[in-house]
User: Fold these one by one.
Assistant:
Number 1:
Amino acid sequence: MLVPDSELFQANVRSTYNVVEAACKLGVKKIIIASSETTYGVCFAQGDADYHSFPLEEDYDVDPEDSYGHFSISHDFTN
């Protein structure tokens, strides 16, 4: 672990807030939020894995393996 989970969560929330705030100030009407494959328990850096379907679709079961994956899920459900 590079930083504590709470620090990671705070940094991610703050970063998301900064993007939304900047977009509002600039008059941007829509923001596209891209999620992470880590919400599905996928980390391509770990090498090959046997997923029950590929490519992954949005209805693939979420199964985060780390705090970043958990943050991504909470972020997805609040946007």
Number 2:
Amino acid sequence: MIVIKKQTGQIPLILNPTTMTNPSNNNRVMAILTLDMTRIPENFPEIIKHEQEVVQQWREQGILEQLYLRPTRNGAVFIFNNLEESEVVELMKSLPLFPLQESILYYPLIEQFQ
């Protein structure tokens, strides 16, 4: 364990070398999907239904840890398990909503607390 010196009044930063040297250990990737709401087609409810089926398959396969809907209702946040960022990018391209995306941001994550 590495502790980075703290200055007065600051909390020390503690890094876990096991996680740092083995990025596949508890590897997670967050994908933030934003939809272009100006391009929503009439069959949007059908697209959403198909989207839910795909996401459910990911949950059953254990590759999707969590899905958060955004309060603005223009997208979602996906937390993926044990996948590399490139794999998540390919999965997101397979979503029924992908053609309606305005942007997708990807953030590799390292779990700090277990």
Number 3:
Amino acid sequence: MNAKDFEKYAGKNTKGKKGNDNLSGGKIIGYDPKDVHPLQLLAIDDIHGDGGKMFEVIIPDKMDLKDWLCGKHKYIWVTIENVIMDELNKVMETRNVKVTLETAQRWYGQGGEFKEMALSAYTEAELNPIKNEWESKVIDYGNKFISGWYLGDDSVYKETNEENTDRSTFRTEKQAKSALAYAQLTQLMALPEYNGDWVADWSDDDDKFVIIRYCDKIDSDYYSKTHHFLAFKSEEIRDKFIENNLDLLKEYFELD
């Protein structure tokens, strides 16, 4: 911090928490010239201050500096979050003029009182939007409807309802058949002769033996970190699975 930056904090009162202590009654008089983050400020006469001297501090006001040197008062180091709360409350009264959404989102992420103040200015949806364009781009209830294919017990069917809004509707027949094959494959892979209860851990360095689509054919490979749905605990089990379920795999990979 430098002298110019300190000006906006000088004379402000302390507030908020430091550890488990509720700060109160302090006034900002100095700063640490070497500190960058978190910004440290020296407060005088806070109820949780002590009388010990602290070095590496700049106190611009001569009277405050004199008192500091004489050790007459209690002092405590605080961060900028402990002194700007009152200013934030004033700002919140005119949210659209002084508080940008970006600033409010930063407060929201800090939690505590900052989060509460952000929520008093913006909604939860504005501060923490769900990144999903489904409602806005695909289905706007009352205006847009979905055509496509849906899953039955053992087959797929063309959607005929002109006012369909079911999000489980697939755009094409092949995609729907692929999803049906996916469900069947999950059950087959869990059989004792294949993976059983084994689940690939993609965070370790062990090889996993996978089934992939390469161009227009089914192929096999092995990876340790790159996730693949069709992963098996051994090469032999993977190859056996391909041999016994080739047609289902072709449907899953949308191969004719």
